[in-house]
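Entry 12.
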Amino acid sequence: MHRYRVIAILIGLWFLCIGIWQWAGWHRFATVQSGPNTLRLIGRLMARVLWQQSEIFRDTGRWWLVLPLLRVTTFLDPTFAEAYDFAGWHIAYNLRAEEKDETRRYQWVKLGLQVYEQGLKHNPNDFSLLFGFGWTAYDKLGDTALAAYYLERALNAPGKFTKDIDWVRHMLAHAYERMPNIQMALKHWEEAALATPYNPVARGATITIRERYAMAETLYRNGYDQEAIEIMENLIRHPDKKYATIPRHILAQIYYDRGDIESAIAIMQQMTEWHKLEPRAEFKARTWRQRLKERELRPVE
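Predicted 3D structure (tokens):
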């Protein structure tokens, strides 16, 4: 309880300082910059104190107490990118995991992404925020297009290490595989293979993408839908590929582009039942069901 009183006192003092500065500024110091600079400095120092307290709550498993402190922390210091990064992850992962209702779990993920978005308004080129947004959009929301957009930005952001570049390229390739955009996936796997020739993952993925999926994508993008479908269906008939995700994403996209939304949804729904950790299929099934409903409600011309 003593620790909470200290936090409350610090926040009260900060608001008191704001009130005094605003009152004094209007009357005497309107042109002096030291006032607002001092307030910003005080706010940042207090944000660090609250940040340390939120880490204590996090490490002791008191998840629901973390969020209010993080809200105040980012209010006191909007440029505190690390706080936004942790808050977005905390909401989309920890608070989501505590929720039993699927609709509310989805809402927690959306709220976590909104926190990342808010952080990027104040820190538009921060690597950790861009990568965190992209990773969460891929891993929890399941929106591969949104994930690829932020991961592409993260790849070009300053302040990253060599290992970060490698990891972002891998994640980008996975997002494009399941979009599906096989040519873009192949591009990023090839770049990763050139950058880290000692890493067999990218090299192996490049070979796999070329051999299994590139031809099917080329065929269906050039109007040979049925031939592409046959290639993917023959692939998933193999016992080792029975639960493969990439060919089913390709199949579903072909059916969707042909206007057979029901078949596309059925493929994604089946994947959701098989793969509890496949939010990409769940996201597409949800999105496409909504579009199918909108098409059914559209008046006939």
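Annotation: The first helix runs from residue 2 to 27. The CA atoms of residues 137 and 143 lie 6 Å apart.
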